[in-house]
Amino acid sequence: MNNPASNYPAVPEDVASPESLVAAVYDAISGPRGERDWNRIRSFYLEGAHLIPTGLRANGEHGLRILDIEQWIVGARELFLREDFFEVQVAQQVDRFGQIAQIFSTYECRHQADGPAHMRGINSFQLLFKDGRWWVVNCFWDNESDGNPIPVKYL
Hints:
Layout: H1 18-29, H2 38-42, E1 45-56, E2 62-64, H3 69-82, E3 86-97, E4 100-110, E5 117-130, E6 133-143
Parallel strand pairs: 1-6
Antiparallel strand pairs: 1-2, 3-4, 4-5, 5-6
């Protein structure tokens, strides 16, 4: 498995709660064109975690890709080196039980921190409390489209 979690110590404030972890994810991936702090990003994800983009494909079908953190970084790095990218949470719903949490996090993507959104969607974070901190186990997302508007309850 990629990303042995012990190789990437987390900032304690980033992983103190489900909400702080999700906020840290958005903070770490957002910024002007250029590299990100990849080790900080790696520190959010439990070993074996998945990042799962889903949505319409060029052929019109709905599909998904299941990536580990290293596979996701390869694609994200290309985007972040090419353009400014700011992903901002605009709403969230948190459900917790025992050592797990599920967060539906509605986001907007922007080319400028305070600019207009060019894309919206929902990230579904599945989180685990383990070893005194919160971890992302999966992040599964879909973008809004004409045929797939974000329901009002998630705004």
